[in-house]
């Protein structure tokens, strides 16, 4: 649930739907790659959820790499947590580590223009 109590705007991403989700031309897809054993991932999760509730111009997904190891290998996810922006089937930006909400929103804004231009 998001802050307002409505259903979460964060989809669970699986290897079999990644191509379709990342190819959407309307809005970039921001993916949070994480694992249950990763403490920094747990710290980033509520920040990512807050950002998703605030940004209707982007689509959001979460991927547990323990449940989707094929996707993590295919996308070369080597550090956790990792956030990546995909648009029209291409990766437009990637960052690893935790961050505060303001920094995360700024990162979205910096890379939103490049995602739309591509």
Automatic annotation (TrEMBL):
Coiled coil segments of this chain: none
Q: Which Gene3D superfamilies match?
A: Glutaredoxin (3.40.30.10)
One Pfam short name = Thioredoxin
| InterPro entries reported in the protein's UniProt record | Thioredoxin, Thioredoxin-like_sf, Thioredoxin_CS, Thioredoxin_domain
Domain annotation Thioredoxin: ranges = 2-113
Q: List the disulfide bonds.
A: 38-41
Key words of the record: Disulfide bond, Electron transport, Redox-active center, Transport
Q: Which GO terms describe its molecular function?
A: protein-disulfide reductase activity
A GO CC term? cytoplasm
Q: Which family does it belong to?
A: Belongs to the thioredoxin family.
Q: What PANTHER family has UniProt attached to this entry? A: GEO12009P1
Q: What is this protein called?
A: Thioredoxin
Provide the species name: Solimonas terrae
């Amino acid at each position: 649930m998001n802050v307002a109590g409505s259903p979460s705007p964060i989809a669970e991403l699986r290897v079999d739907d990644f191509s379709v989700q990342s190819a959407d031309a309307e809005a970039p897809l921001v993916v949070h790659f994480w694992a249950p054993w990763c403490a920094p991932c747990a710290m980033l999760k509520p920040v990512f959820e807050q950002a998703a509730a605030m940004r209707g111009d982007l689509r959001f997904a979460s991927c547990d790499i323990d449940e989707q190891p094929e996707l993590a290998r295919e996308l070369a996810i080597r550090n956790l947590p990792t956030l990546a922006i995909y648009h029209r089937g291409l990766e437009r930006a990637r960052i690893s580590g935790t961050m505060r909400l303001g920094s995360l929103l700024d990162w979205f804004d910096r890379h939103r223009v490049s995602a739309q231009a591509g």
